Fold this protein.
Amino acid sequence: MNEKKEEYEDRTLAALTYSVSKNSEEIIIDVSLAQYDKQSTQALSSILTTIAKDSCIMETITIIKDCLIGAGQEEILLELLTAIGKQATEKAYKNIDDNNDERPCISPSDML
């Protein structure tokens, strides 16, 4: 197993790891670059561009779903999807509240 990890590290140009500790809800982001060179920087840029896409989020959730179902952990999957849905709903409501700033529906200039 150690040889595989070393081989992976030898081939990896850039890596981005998100983690949460047991005693904290703070998200820790670890960035690794093989070298401080153009190739590693482009690899990191590719990672950042990819994770910003909605399609990446959906693919990640699909991978997690398949793993949890394969492990017989449907309840954990339901908890995860419920938490994601709750966060998305809260974000949507916050965006609505932020955009709803007591302006009249019809501007006085529209009446002229």
